[in-house]
Amino acid sequence: MTDGSIQRKRKLSIRTKLAFASGSLEEAMVLAANVATMIFYNQVLGVSPGLCGTAFFIGGLIDAVSDPVVGAISDSVNTRWGRRHPFMFLSAAPLGLFFYLLYQPPSGLSELQLFTWLVVMIVGLRLAKSFYAVPHIALGAELTDDYDERTSVFAWNFVVYSLSGAVLGYFVLAVIFPTTEGFENGLMNPERYQFLAIFGGIFVFAWVMICTFTTADQIPYLHQTLKKNFASFLKDTRNNLRVLLTNPSYIAVCACWLVLATSGGVLAVVATYTLLYAFEFTTEQLAFRAFVTLPGAFVGIFLSAWFVRQFDKKYTVIFTCLITSLLLGLPYSLRLLGWMPENGTDWLLIVVFGIWITGYFFLPVVPIVIDSQLVDIADEHELVTGERSEGIIFSIRTMCFKMTASLGTALAGFALEFIDFPDNASVETLKPEVIDGLLWMTGPLYIFIVYAGVGFAFLYRIDRKRHEEILRELEIRRARSKNDNLLNVDGA
């Protein structure tokens, strides 16, 4: 294997892109189930929102440590199966097991014991996800050096993630938690959580294994690393972190991503409460929310490529973040102003989902282009340090996705505690100020937080011209290194 420019800037087949993208089905399943997690522990089992939020906050702290550590380890290993695939393979069984146990706590536990169970299961699930998600996304970063082709790689990944997320989101709400006699809100039916646990556990195990084996043929084309002892590993890791934490482009992406992911996590959890209690949606109507993402998912590949060609990556992220967050928070803001149709009418559904279809049309562009930016940063980092550190660099990406279900959910729990959202809530008994609190969090506050976070995106410095310069210098360096190795072999 060589690291020559022709091989590194190669085009990839659709089969390879889909094989890599199949790994996102695990994340789609976890996210689809997350809509039920807070309600299960809070409303069904009786754990306070504050304790639920604390459990998810602890999970977020674990992510902040585990993701960079796993990234550094997977950057540094050197096995016959490559740097990434061994970790992906070994994570499959723990992922499936912890997913199952999260939704099957033993019966008869007190609130404190349920809190402890939730903490242990979240920590276990997050650690297992670290050992899968970080190597998986770093694998995508290694597939090609081509500036536009790598955008395509992550576009396919997001499209598969979006499509599977829509289908699984609908399946969870409409099939696993349907409206039944005695349970107008199907998420309150405790017996259905066993179905979720079994189906989800098997699903995530299966797709991690499928992705691992179907991408194994790419191992010969990936970057390799020299074998390191523990001392050199620690030294190189410290140096990599020092360089990255002083890189304005990396700081810009990390800060922007963290704000977007955390605010999105709060929105995902609190919006479920808002739609159920403020808009009085059924779980079947709530399930339809997943399908409003599909138009954007179908055009995400082409739209992201077009935006990047026209505006480059930096301004593509800024524009699409601003328009998407405004539209996602708009229905809640309009309800606060009294400008929405009455609950129970067809017009309410038409207006809410009509606004969201437009917002979700632009949403896929944001993560696709940010992922592509991170790969460009990996090239710049190699130029500065001589190290390929996709694992460390992309740990921020995987951590942010998990922050959606950890720190975002934690803040949502604390927010629900702050507005005094009651246990065993019903539409008839909720106070108007509690409803207004839900609408404020999912409307104006969400939009404001996202707009503040987008300010970090202006710090990003790598454009198309700068990236071409980086690749030219890397190609010269790699060619020189290859020649030096050949001379050493001949001399020996």
Structure description:
The protein has 492 residues and is mainly alpha-helical. It has a single domain (21-221, 229-482), classed as MFS general substrate transporter like domains (Growth Hormone, Chain: A, Up-down Bundle). The protein is 75% helix and 0% strand. It is built from 18 helices and no strands. Helix 3 (24-44) runs parallel beside helix 7, helix 5 packs antiparallel against helix 6 (111-142) and helix 12 (294-336) packs across helix 14 (365-385). The longest helix is centred in the middle third of the chain and has 43 residues, at 294-336. The two termini are 21 Å apart. Mean pLDDT is 85; it is low at 1-6.
Please render the helix and strand layout as text.
Elements: H1 5-8, H2 14-21, H3 24-44, H4 49-76, H5 85-102, H6 111-142, H7 149-176, H8 193-214, H9 230-244, H10 248-277, H11 283-287, H12 294-336, H13 346-362, H14 365-385, H15 390-405, H16 407-418, H17 432-454, H18 464-491
Helix pairs in contact: 2-7, 2-8, 3-7, 3-8, 3-10, 4-6, 4-15, 4-16, 5-6, 5-8, 6-15, 7-12, 7-14, 10-14, 10-15, 10-16, 10-17, 12-13, 12-14, 12-17, 14-15, 14-18, 15-16
